[in-house]
């Protein structure tokens, strides 16, 4: 069964460093999402992406964040200058046109020290 | 902004018990998802529903649109059902289908 994959599974970085989290959505899906979950808190929407542009973003998704679909398969989330409070689990999700159901990746745990 | 509340926050059961987890939301929605999150952190979609009832194995999900309420039931619970169960909703409007999540219910099923 097709699935969303994410790499790395765990990333440790120092405050102020740039990180790129990678996702490979399911191949025929056209809508892509990033969510994050700070430890012990609920999952929060960050950004949605369709047709090579951001379609919606939350207040969390400030200028430090960017997303890109550099080729036909990868979908990336970049954090330019990480802060301690960026430590969280980041989930990528994708869905097919015309269907509500989103398929989630296994997540990347980001630890900022 | 849709507020999603789940109850209970924590639930401990004995193997074989019937489990009910509740979800309520404040604004009308177009779809509601029940998700399962295991200790490793990965999220698995269990159900997506916009009306009525769905059943998959020992899991049953119901939704009452008028009351803005959904329940997830687990029959004959098993220790492998232990996980966090999350309710997430998609509000009307827009085409992005972004989800708003509840805080989750931690279910522990003891043998």
Written account of the structure:
The complex is a heterodimer of chains A (about 110) and B (about 110). Chain A has strands at about 5, 10-15, 20-25, 30-35, 45-50, 55, 65-70, 75-80, 90-95, 105, 110. Chain A has about 110 residues and is mostly beta strands. In chain A, the strands form 2 sheets. In chain A, strands 2, 4, 5, 6, 9, 10 and 11 form a 7-stranded mixed β-sheet that branches. A 4-stranded antiparallel β-sheet of chain A has the order 1-3-8-7, with no helix packed on it. In chain A, strand 5 and strand 6 form a beta hairpin. Chain A is globular. The model of chain A has no long low-confidence stretch (mean pLDDT about 95). With about 110 residues, chain B is mainly β. Chain B has strands spanning about 5, 10-15, 20-25, 30-35, 45-50, 50-55, 60-65, 70-75, 85-90, 100, 105-110. In chain B, strands 2, 4, 5, 9, 10 and 11 form a 6-stranded mixed β-sheet that branches. Chain B is globular, with a radius of gyration of 14 Å.
In short:
Chain A is mainly beta and 113 residues long. Helices cover 0% and strands 50% of the residues of chain A.
């Amino acid at each position: 069964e097709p699935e969303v994959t994410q790499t790395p599974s765990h990333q440790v970085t120092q405050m102020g460093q740039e990180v790129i989290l990678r996702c490979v959505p399911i191949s025929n899906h056209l809508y892509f999402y990033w969510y994050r979950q700070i430890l012990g808190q609920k999952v929060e929407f960050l950004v949605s992406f369709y047709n090579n542009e951001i379609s919606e973003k939350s207040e969390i998704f400030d200028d430090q964040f960017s997303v890109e679909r550099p080729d036909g398969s990868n979908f990336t989330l970049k954090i330019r200058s990480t802060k301690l409070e960026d430590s969280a689990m980041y989930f990528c999700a994708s869905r097919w046109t015309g269907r509500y159901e989103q398929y989630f990746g296994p997540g990347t745990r980001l630890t900022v020290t | 902004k849709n507020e999603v509340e789940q109850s209970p926050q924590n639930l401990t059961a004995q193997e074989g018990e019937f489990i009910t987890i509740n979800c309520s939301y404040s604004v009308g929605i177009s779809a509601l998802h029940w998700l399962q999150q295991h200790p490793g952190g990965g999220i698995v979609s269990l159900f997506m529903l916009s009306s009525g009832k769905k059943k998959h194995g020992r899991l049953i999900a119901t939704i009452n649109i008028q009351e803005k309420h959904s329940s997830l039931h687990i029959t004959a619970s098993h220790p492998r059902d232990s996980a966090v169960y999350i309710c997430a909703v998609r509000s009307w409007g827009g085409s992005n289908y972004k989800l708003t999540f509840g805080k989750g219910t931690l279910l522990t099923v003891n043998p």
